[in-house]
Amino acid sequence: MAEGQIRKALSGYYYVYQNGELIQCRGRGVFRNRGESPLVGDFVDYTKEGESDGYIMKIHPRMNELVRPPIANVDQAILVFSVKEPDFNTILLDRFLVVLESFRVNPIICLTKMDLLDEEERVKLTKYIDDYKSIGYEIIETYKNDKTLLERLQPVLEGKTSVLAGQSGVGKSTLLNTLLPELKLQTSDISHSLGRGKHTTRHVELIEVCGGLLADTPGFSSFDFDTIEKEELTSCFPEFERLSEGCKFRGCLHIKEPKCAVKGALEREEVPSYRYEHYQQFLQEILDRKPRY
């Protein structure tokens, strides 16, 4: 029995990495019987059958697991958002942040196309950047032909398992090209090279980059709140979670309750009003969700 990590899953096979080699494994039937499924990112025990084949015998406990894409033990997500073409979108960013916080995945915000902003737009964006930094989020700003990008991303990626997420058209492929120059491809070809062309099987794969592991996640362009309960939403807004310790009622939802510390901070303009508006909107989505049986 040996221990390794699943780096790729494709067509019913799991490719387990250990000591520089990939072992093509099948999952044992016992996993199906228990309703379990090995995921890319899982640490597993496996037995070898021959030189490069084997069976997964045991899945180690997970730090976390994402549903879309199906991947486990993620440390952080690099959220790629353009500031123009398409314009910077705080409500979409907050959706991403809330879902990642719920999975206990650390978000890092990567802003692309900074060079397209005029002075007025730059001033407006700086306010947003300051807001998110004050909450505690790390922000990386990128420009066209940015020669320092790889150097700045190296310490961010090193020793971590990261997912790359963002809408199409925001510069995600350009970022991938910077991180994986060995592909030597046009940006439009990159998703195809990773097995994500329109007519290829979608799969998740962890690729070694900058001393860490990176998964590109094509379906990671929008989020819903299926797995978040109304009582959990506050904890997905870090600045609200810190403030909520001062609320009169435990489990305060910060809507109509008296002596609410979050609403007090809002009135004093200590939290951005758009973040509170997004919180209200997301809470309503959760309250309107059809019950699951």
Topology, element by element:
Elements: E1 2-10, E2 13-18, E3 21-27, H1 29-34, E4 43-48, E5 53-59, E6 65-66, E7 71-72, E8 76-82, H2 90-102, E9 106-112, H3 119-135, E10 138-141, H4 149-157, E11 161-165, H5 172-179, H6 187-193, E12 207-209, E13 212-216, H7 238-244, H8 261-267, H9 273-288
Parallel strand pairs: 3-5, 8-9, 8-11, 9-10, 11-13
Antiparallel strand pairs: 1-2, 1-4, 2-3, 4-5, 6-7, 12-13
Helix pairs in contact: 2-9, 5-6
Word description of this protein:
Helix content is 31%, strand content 24%. It is an alpha/beta fold. It folds into three domains: 2-61, Beta Barrel (OB fold (Dihydrolipoamide Acetyltransferase, E2P)); 71-216, Rossmann fold, CATH 3.40.50; 230-288, Ribonucleotide Reductase Protein R1, domain 1 (Orthogonal Bundle), CATH 1.10.40. The strands form three sheets. It has a six-stranded mixed beta sheet with strand order 10-9-8-11-13-12, sandwiched between helices. Strands 1-2-3-5-4 form a five-stranded mixed beta barrel. A two-stranded antiparallel sheet has the order 6-7. The chain is globular. Mean pLDDT is 87; it is low at 185-201. Belongs to the TRAFAC class YlqF/YawG GTPase family. RsgA subfamily. It is found in: Cytoplasm. Residues 72-221 form the EngC GTPase domain. Zn(2+) binds at residues 247, 252, 254, 260.
